[in-house]
């Protein structure tokens, strides 16, 4: 009704954080009960004036944090030809997918066989760059170079299955993680990138996540700086010791992490 959307990962406001505006106003509805079919809160079942004098007070207020709707950002589908993105900025993007109740990445690549150079993906609602699959057989180089992924409310870069090279890029101030590699991620070479000021509180475990989280390690990190983060710099859950590849971190820095 207000033209706003609810972020399933960031919607609840603690009682102490509810703005003072409205906490002294007259209560006009109590015991509000809406169903999935209701589209107007004023028409939901509820107790109304003048029958709520002793029903509730402002100590029972509930706070909801709503987001302004954002544009979808950029999506490269499975059938997209190889694309070279250069010198573009993607910001304030992230569309709510009502089928999954999740926000989409600002730049979503369904099948990565592209080249990103000097791309800025900043200040977005969810992940900056999200990759589903990568074309690891085409012979092309799947590369991101000289780019920035910062101040996104999800992760800077997130992928489930990928053969990707990131070089000369900055990844910082993202809310969840700088880089998130899923269990199905293909071997990835990270080079010359910086990840800083990352780490999200996981409310299910009440612990902060690492700045770079790798669910299954069979990658190569070279000249990577992971500094000034809220929790661990690099966190590895499992390592692939049977693939025949070298799981290696070289010439890198992990410092000033809490």
TrEMBL record:
InterPro entries: Pectin_lyase_fold/virulence, SJ_maturation_regulator, SRCR, SRCR-like_dom_sf. Residues 27-67 form the SRCR domain. This is SRCR domain-containing protein. Keywords: Disulfide bond, Glycoprotein, Repeat, Signal. GO terms for cellular component: membrane. It comes from the Eukaryota. It comes from Homalodisca liturata. PROSITE patterns: SRCR_2 (PS50287). Disulfide bonds join 34-44. One of its GO terms (biological process) is cell-cell junction maintenance.
